[in-house]
């Protein structure tokens, strides 16, 4: 059994996670702009998920991101206007629609991800490979402990 974390360690953890969250928000906004100048960060996250997971119903996206269906509908409309998402009939239920990232969106997302990996590789160049692996393992453990969403 492990000893309970010390309160000062938890305070420092909260501070570092706060820095990480602010950085992630900034990165998401930057990535959104790189995909399309008019793409909002929340829509970027939705687009990324749809591109990675394949065709899905808007209701599934709403559930995943804990966003009401009206907000998702507005985001989908905007993404369609930008040419980044398309809708098609669900073959299992002709009344429902499936969202898919357009080929252009997939390519833009891929390009942005490659640029971000290059940026990270440059910034983390001084890290030992083992340190990066340990950090990644500990971050995964942290996420598992808190319950990934």
What is the rounded Rg?
A: 19 Å
H/E topology pattern: HHHHEEHH
Give a short account of the largest sheet: 2 strands, antiparallel
Tell me the overall shape. Answer: globular
Number of helices: 6
* Distance separating the two termini: 26 Å
Please report the first level of CATH classification, the CATH class of the domain at 40-114: Mainly Alpha
Low-confidence stretches: none
Approximately how much beta-strand content do the residues carry?
5-15%
> Major sheet: order of its strands?
1-2
CATH superfamily of the domain at 40-114: Winged helix-like DNA-binding domain superfamily/Winged helix DNA-binding domain
- SS elements, strand count: 2
Mean of the pLDDT scores?
Answer: 92
Q: What features would you describe in this structure?
A:
With 149 residues, the chain is mostly helical. The chain has a domain at 40-114: Winged helix-like DNA-binding domain superfamily/Winged helix DNA-binding domain (Arc Repressor Mutant, subunit A), CATH 1.10.10.10. 68% of the residues lie in helices and 10% in strands. The chain has 6 helices and 2 strands, in the order H-H-H-H-E-E-H-H. The chain has helices at residues 7-35, 41-53, 58-65, 69-81, 103-123, 129-146, and strands at residues 85-90, 93-101. The chain has a two-stranded antiparallel sheet. A hairpin with a 2-residue loop joins strand 1 and strand 2. Helix 3 (58-65) packs across helix 4 (69-81). It is globular. It starts with 6 loop residues before the first helix and ends with a helix. The model has no long low-confidence stretch (mean pLDDT 92).
């Amino acid at each position: 059994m492990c000893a309970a974390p010390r309160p000062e360690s938890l305070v420092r953890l909260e501070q570092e996670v706060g820095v990480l969250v602010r950085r992630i928000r900034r990165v998401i906004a930057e990535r959104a702009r790189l995909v399309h100048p008019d793409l909002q960060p929340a829509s970027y996250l939705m687009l990324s998920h749809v591109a990675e997971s394949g065709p899905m119903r808007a209701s599934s996206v709403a559930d995943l991101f804990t966003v009401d269906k009206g907000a998702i509908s507005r985001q989908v409309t905007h993404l369609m206007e930008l040419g980044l998402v398309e809708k098609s009939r669900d073959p299992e239920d002709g009344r429902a629609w499936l969202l898919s990232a357009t080929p252009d969106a997939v390519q833009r997302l891929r390009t942005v991800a490659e640029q971000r990996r290059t940026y990270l590789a440059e910034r983390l160049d001084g890290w030992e490979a083992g340190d990066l692996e340990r950090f990644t393992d500990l971050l995964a453990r942290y996420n598992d402990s808190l319950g990934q969403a």
